[in-house]
Design goal:
This protein is α/β, with parallel strands linked by helices and 235 residues long. The protein is built from ten helices and ten strands. It is globular and about 45 Å long. 40% of the residues are buried. The chain binds adenosine-5'-triphosphate and magnesium ion.
Length: 235
């Protein structure tokens, strides 16, 4: 199983004591790896450390076989690592298309329009409203737009922090189907998700965190029945 991205024994915090204590995760090519864990477990902190927003005090982040520990987010975007933050925003006064174009800031100018078109082809929920201002979209459509924008840089791996938060189960399902489409297009995914039941249906691999540590990880098919995951599933 070829790995696109992995974290090895990351120790990282904000200003105080470490929040993550030697946390590891492997993101294989062509797969969706879901990160589960209760509130405050350190899921977002792990995501931020892997995209260069936080500098680890221990451990390494590898992109294929290259050590990218400590590289900033802009450098990582150019190497194909995309990130959708937990508190994401679209530009309300800009249209869907303009939002996508903003997301393509690392591309050659001449390539942006074509890329926006091919990203929109993956997002039927947005395509019909591509001329609308983002603030005129539903909350769910805005999440779709934020997800679509992440793809504008043509990433090899995308880290999505709770892309379905706050959505109705029905629309969350739609977003997950969209995530499956993205995976089918060849992008490896690491997805932080609160809804473990829904996540397990779409995950290939699962990594469970608790209190800043690895709790368990492995193929979703094997973990579905395990006790630790069951505990998380019931909250
Ligand atoms: N900017 C920050 N400064 C200081 N501490 C922070 C900061 N962000 C998060 N923390 C702390 O780090 C710990 C882990 O937070 P993190 O956001 O990584 O958890 P999470 O698993 O993503 O939780 P949630 O499911 O609520 O999003 C928490 O104790 C939190 O208070
Ligand atoms: Mg979080």
């Amino acid at each position: 199983m070829a790995l696109i991205l992995c974290a090895e024994a990351l120790t990282v915090g904000y200003d105080g004591p470490p929040i993550l204590d030697r946390v590891s995760i492997e993101i294989p090519e062509g797969m969706t790896t879901v990160v589960l864990g209760p509130n405050g477990a350190g899921k977002s902190t792990l995501a931020k450390a892997m995209v260069g927003l936080l500098r680890p005090t221990g451990g390494r982040v590898l992109l294929r076989d290259q050590d990218i520990t400590g590289l900033g987010p802009h450098k990582l975007v150019r190497r194909g690592v995309a990130y959708l933050p937990q508190l994401m925003n679209v530009f309300g006064d800009m249209s869907v298309i303009e939002n996508l174009e903003m997301g393509g800031y690392t591309l050659r100018r001449g390539a942006v329009g074509g890329r926006a078109k091919s990203v929109l082809e993956l997002f039927p929920d947005l395509a019909a409203d591509h001329g609308k201002k983002a603030r005129a979209l539903s909350g769910g459509q805005q999440k779709m737009l934020a997800l679509a924008r992440v793809l504008m840089t043509d990433p090899v791996v995308a880290i999505l922090d709770e892309p379905t938060a706050g959505l109705s189960p029905l629309y969350a399902d739609r977003v997950w189907e969209q995530i499956d489409t993205v995976r089918a297009a060849g992008v490896a995914l690491m997805v932080v998700e609160q809804n473990a039941v829904m996540a397990m249906e779409h995950a290939d691999m699962v990594c469970v965190l608790g209190q800043g540590r690895n709790v368990t990880s492995g193929p979703a098919a094997e973990l579905r029945d395990r006790e630790e995951v069951a505990r998380i599933l019931v909250g």
